[in-house]
Specification:
alpha/beta, Immunoglobulin-like, Rossmann fold, 3 domains, 19% helix
């Protein structure tokens, strides 16, 4: 037996992602050629090295920016299942616009102390829209507790003492708030122009509010974005039921897929109306039969009549079902989640191969779907027909 027969050979590097030397990597964002707007550039991806990854950093002409967060990625683990350390190679950095330099580079350090460059960030920057929106914000910003004006970079309201945290030029009335991007979570990126009906005229020269904006790809200088955590395009961090604006401030308001995620839907609806100018219009999209979803929590779905009750006292111009809320969306969502949630692979295949008629059966007798119940706890909660709570006082 040769000596080499006893050697443990390193696992074969899987052909996934882009490769530089011994490293492989994916950049989720920013993508090459993407125009980045907002208060900072969010950089997220993963990198693998046969010796393991100790850290990732960005190097610019202004110096080094260490990784804010490293996180595990289930999809990475699946792609690189032969490499246990791959599960822990996700990384996230926030690069403020004022320290960004063209051609910023991503470097990784292996667990043996070897540094190597693996990517050049070539996304274009344009913070003009964000900067103009931020100037308009400072003209209308008030304390959500006492409605006294808030000056730029003051640490607390001069009237009631409520703290104000400043993350660069972005004020937060909820304390320092990292972006959910740092935790590898799903991000709402609804295009604003696709969800607004014609009667909300964004070309009127007015000022508009996107309450619970997420991270839209088409931010504008005339739209103030409010979120409970900080995204690159977020103008102010605040609770939707305690908006930091004077009464009758906005010409129009957008609330897209937010209502089901607020603890106090009545308070949220009332505060939206409070900051809307007389004659101003708002559009509110809310979940009805959508399964459990979203961040940070999913609290209350609404029927159409329930949504009207939340906005009692406001003139209703139109109401109904939007093109992205049609029943097929609900049906597809449920079927895909149900199928993905099986713990029994044979059951999953039988389910996928059944016809719709077979699945329906006779609802009063055989109930064919009863034989497909090997679901994960998460899927059961997501798609449950109802929930209960048992209490005692």
């Amino acid at each position: 037996m040769n000596e080499s027969d006893n050697q443990v050979l390193p696992p074969e590097i899987p052909q996934a992602g882009r490769q530089v030397g011994d490293m492989q990597y994916f950049i989720e964002f920013p993508k090459a050629g993407l125009l980045c707007t907002g208060s900072f550039v969010a950089v997220r991806g993963w990198v693998w090295h046969p010796k393991g990854i100790e850290t990732v950093e960005c190097r610019t002409s202004r110096g080094r920016i260490p990784t804010k967060t490293r996180f595990g990625r289930a999809d990475v683990f699946k792609a690189l299942s032969e490499h246990p350390r791959a599960f822990h190679t996700g990384f996230y950095l926030e690069i403020e616009h004022d320290i960004w330099a063209s051609g910023a580079e991503l470097w990784a350090e292996s667990c043996e102390g070897e540094w190597a460059r693996f990517h050049t960030l070539d996304a274009d920057l344009d913070d003009g829209s964000f900067g103009r929106a931020q100037k308009r914000l400072l003209e209308i910003l008030v304390c959500p507790s006492c409605y006294r004006s808030i000056d730029f970079h003051i640490p607390a309201c001069a009237g009631c003492g409520r703290p104000v945290e400043w993350m660069g030029d972005v004020p937060s009335f909820l304390g320092p708030r990292p972006s959910p991007l740092a935790r590898g979570e799903q991000v709402s990126r609804h295009p604003v122009m696709e969800i607004i009906p014609e009667y909300l005229d964004l070309d009127s020269g007015g000022l508009f509010l996107d309450a619970g904006a997420g991270w839209p790809p088409d931010s504008r200088p005339d739209i103030i974005q409010v979120e409970i955590e900080r995204f690159p395009s977020t103008n102010v961090v605040a609770d939707g039921a305690e908006l930091p604006f004077r009464p009758e401030t906005f010409d129009g308001i957008i609330s897209h897929a937010v209502m089901e995620h607020v603890k106090d839907p009545f308070g949220y609806a009332a505060d939206l109306v409070r900051v809307l100018k007389p004659g101003g219009k708002f559009i509110c999209h809310s979940a009805f039969l959508q399964p459990l979803h979203g961040y940070p929590y999913h609290y209350f779905n609404t029927t159409l009549e329930g949504l009207k009750v939340l906005f009692e006292g406001v003139k209703i111009l139109d109401a109904g079902v939007s093109k992205f809320q049609l029943p097929w969306v609900t049906l597809e969502w449920i079927l895909r989640s149900y199928c993905a949630g099986f713990t029994d692979s044979d059951e999953k295949e039988r389910f996928k191969n059944m016809k719709v008629g077979d699945l329906l059966g006779d609802m009063d007798e055989d109930r064919p779907l009863r034989q497909f119940q090997s679901l994960t706890e998460e899927t059961t909660l997501e798609l449950a027909a109802g929930v209960y709570i048992l209490g005692e006082r």
